[in-house]
């Protein structure tokens, strides 16, 4: 692949910006949009009008504007709202929407969308050599999280929110070999039994097995992308010694860490 050509293709596809709209100063699309948009409301309430229908989107929520839309973005009378928007296009020749979301595609969740949108904006504004590639990566991450929300039931989604803090703690502390499931349960103010039940409902796997899978997946990345020794990777991924790491790794993959790296 021609890397330069690929870079400029990405450059033309994604634009990230921050804006404020008021009832007296709306945005009116006079022609069908040739791109799709995701926007995160940082302050106030937005009012979106399309085909005679009005939709409201509040602070902390995400809206999706499909390609081909002729619409109006404004605020309720006497009000204004601020937002961060990402305009993108997967296929400029295809004028139909490529994502299945409704206009209001997230009402706030376990995912830190505000931080992701802010990161995309910061990188886009920086205009650093790799910033646009990073922006595209963030866009795909946001879309991936939105797909998760789109495909799970509201009941499961509520359970995910209950163990949100524990999952974040697990991801930040997986390298600690003394990390216990009871610690995760305490973070959520649940009994260990209740935590295990809800965790199983959401992820279809026991908490400890999830933790081991998480560690092994991290180890795979390090084995194939770094020159670190098997012993170093074992410790970095939360195993107390190289023997237990090798045994666990082989039970998951069918091969030893060394053979996997080779």
Taking pLDDT < 50 over at least 5 consecutive residues as the criterion, the unreliable ranges are 1-11
Give the helices and strands as they follow along the chain. HEEEEEEEEEHHHHHHHHHH
- Terminal residue distance: 26 Å
Q: What is the makeup of the main sheet?
A: 5 strands, antiparallel
Shape: elongated
Fraction in helix: 40-55%
Sheet with most strands: strand arrangement: 1-8-3-6-9
Number of strands: 9
Chain-wise SSE layout:
Elements: H1 3-13, E1 15-22, E2 27-28, E3 36-43, E4 45-50, E5 53-58, E6 62-65, E7 71-74, E8 80-88, E9 104-106, H2 113-126, H3 131-151, H4 154-162, H5 164-173, H6 181-187, H7 192-203, H8 207-225, H9 230-236, H10 242-253, H11 257-261
Antiparallel strand pairs: 1-8, 2-7, 3-6, 3-8, 4-5, 4-7, 6-9
Helix pairs in contact: 2-3, 4-7, 5-6, 6-7, 9-10
Key attributes of the depicted protein:
262 residues, alpha+beta, five-stranded antiparallel β-sheet, 11 helices, disordered N terminus
How would you describe this protein?
The chain is of the alpha+beta class and 262 residues long. The chain is built from 11 helices and 9 strands. Strands 1-8-3-6-9 form a 5-stranded antiparallel beta sheet. A hairpin with a 2-residue loop joins β4 and β5. α2 runs antiparallel to α3, α5 packs across α6 and α6 packs across α7. The N terminus is likely disordered.
Summarize it.
This protein is an alpha+beta fold and 262 residues long. The protein is built from eleven helices and nine strands.
